[in-house]
Amino acid sequence: MDAQTPDRAQLPLWQAYPYMFEGPARVVAVDAEGGVILDRSLFYPAGGGQPGDTGALELDGRAIRVADARKAEGGVRLVLAEGERAPEVGAQVLQRLDEARRRAHMRMHTALHLLSVVIPLPVTGGQIGADKGRLDFDMPEAPADKDALEAQLNALVEANHPVTDEWISDAELEANPGLVKTMAVKPPMGAGQVRLVRIGAPDATVDLQPCGGTHVRFTGEIGPLRIGKIEKKGKMNRRVSLTFA
Hints:
Blueprint: H1 13-16, E1 22-30, E2 36-38, E3 55-59, E4 62-72, E5 75-80, E6 92-97, H2 99-118, E7 123-128, E8 132-138, H3 146-158, E9 163-169, H4 170-175, E10 193-199, E11 207-210, E12 225-232, E13 237-244
Antiparallel strand pairs: 1-2, 1-6, 2-5, 3-4, 3-6, 4-5, 7-8, 8-13, 9-10, 10-11, 12-13
Helix pairs in contact: 2-3
């Protein structure tokens, strides 16, 4: 699989270097609504249940607050906070992410992958937050022992498994549909390559699934977790909430 790994220089910065929380950039476009597009963005654009990053662009001694980041043609569109004035096209700026928020999203995103391991059922939806997250499962009946699931989850965290990524072709993913855990959302295809996130060593894999989000390097960085409410959301659907303990 790694033979197809793209050069990191060709990847978005937020994907190639998820622990890079500040860095220079050049403004390449400002749209009619004041949205800013940079040549290489550190800001993760909302998608896959993970919110867009927030932070600031520093220019000439002032900090221009970034309230959200969204996917856009040509890159990532930064939505500025109300009242902020966009920098001019061509301006050199320093990107600064809200590091604590990004790290929390990385921890929770990896934690939700682990949740899909201890509850090995099809995933019908999900959402990542800085304080809590959730997955919806095709689950006719609620788990009999929530405490046992929580213990299994925290054991995976404490084992400090490595978290890495690799790439496969669209055709390889089509030939291995079991890699896709989500029922409603299909991984992005059409570019020829699909990113997989692996938890665990290649010879002792805990989880392997397509994902475009940001993750921690080791599961031990997640910290203790608590499974919250398990709510019925339809005849066959149950929502499992997760928080940091």
